[in-house]
Design a protein that fits this description.
One of its GO terms (cellular component) is membrane. The chain is of the alpha/beta class and about 260 residues long. The chain is about 50% helix and about 15% strand. Helix 5 (about 150-170) links the parallel strand 5 and strand 6. Helix 4 (about 100-125) packs parallel to helix 5 (about 150-170). It is globular. The relative contact order is 0.14. The chain binds NADP nicotinamide-adenine-dinucleotide phosphate.
């Protein structure tokens, strides 16, 4: 899809990957709707885009709340491109995770992506055009120990992408899944305890920047790519997981967190 003059909605756009993706879409001539909870951070990102000569608006919403998702869909009509990027979640053993925290990490990203996509899907299908991007985590391919709640939500997001892709065939609406390795955003500060749980074997995969993720997201829309895992070392690890599932899962377990 060509982006100039299009409208793009990016969730989790107050910082990190989402903020950089919003900036890059705006640099390609799109109007960007930036969504997150922090009004102040959103305003800073909108200001940055406008000072650059782009076009953007901020929309404050807690996407863990279905009522606020409905209100957002009333406020912003169906965009040409929807980027489901907002995500949270500490990496914890299941019985160390409170029920409230499990609900939150399931709500965002998974339920938020499901509900917001549902809000916009009818209009996209009627127009016969549109693109959805789901930003996912490597643990949606390669499970690691001590991370059940977060991981389940990521597998659900992967399932949402795969199943919706089938229903979208022939409609003119498409969907991509973009899966970066570890990213140098504030994610691990915002979700303490997660970084330490990356298994030693996965630390061989180089960290990528939010800017590189933004490029991958925009490329996925422009080139209408179904899936993009990067860097290549993550892709190699994923292929190894498919070819040698027992060995890959043993090494991940062996070099990961234990009680
Ligand atoms: N960092 C990594 O290593 C990595 C790797 C692969 C995939 N990812 C995924 O990429 C996505 C973006 O991650 P990031 O690294 O940019 O993380 P981040 O810096 O922590 O940013 C997360 C974004 O999500 C928003 N958000 C969180 N909860 C929300 C809610 N309830 N409602 C609305 N917005 C909410 C946050 O904004 P507010 O706090 O202002 O609401 C923020 O803008 C996440 O889904 C993450 O899991 C990250």
């Amino acid at each position: 899809m060509q982006l100039s003059g299009k409208r793009v909605l990016v969730t989790g756009a107050s910082q990190g990957i989402g903020a950089e993706a919003a900036f890059r879409f705006a640099a390609h001539g799109a109007h960007v709707h930036l969504v997150a909870r922090s009004a102040e951070l959103l305003d800073q990102q909108v200001k940055r885009i406008i000072e650059f000569g782009g076009s953007a608006t901020a929309h404050v919403a807690d996407l863990a709340d279905a009522v606020q998702i409905r209100a957002l869909a009333e406020e912003v009509s169906a965009p040409d491109v929807l980027v489901n990027n907002a995500g949270v979640g500490r990496w914890l053993f299941l019985d160390d995770t409170s029920a409230d925290e499990l609900q939150t990490m399931t709500s965002v990203p998974y339920l938020a992506a499901l509900l917001l996509t549902r809000e916009y899907l009818g209009a996209m299908r009627s127009r016969g055009s549109g693109w959805i991007v789901n930003v996912n985590s490597p643990v949606s391919r390669l499970p690691i120990p001590g991370c059940v709640g977060y991981q389940s939500s990521r597998w659900a997001l992967r399932g949402l992408t795969a199943s919706l892709r089938l229903d979208l065939r022939g409609t003119g609406v498409g969907i991509s899944e973009v899966v970066p390795g570890k990213v140098s955003s504030e994610y691990f500060n915002n979700n303490p305890g997660a970084e330490e749980r990356i298994p030693a074997i996965a630390r061989m995969i180089p960290t990528v920047t939010p800017q590189r993720c933004a490029k991958a997201i925009v490329d996925a829309v422009e080139k209408e790519r179904a899936e993009h895992l990067f860097p290549w070392q993550l892709k190699a690890f994923e292929i190894s997981g498919r070819l040698f599932p027992g060995l890959t899962s043993y090494l991940t377990w062996k070099t990961g967190t234990h009680r």
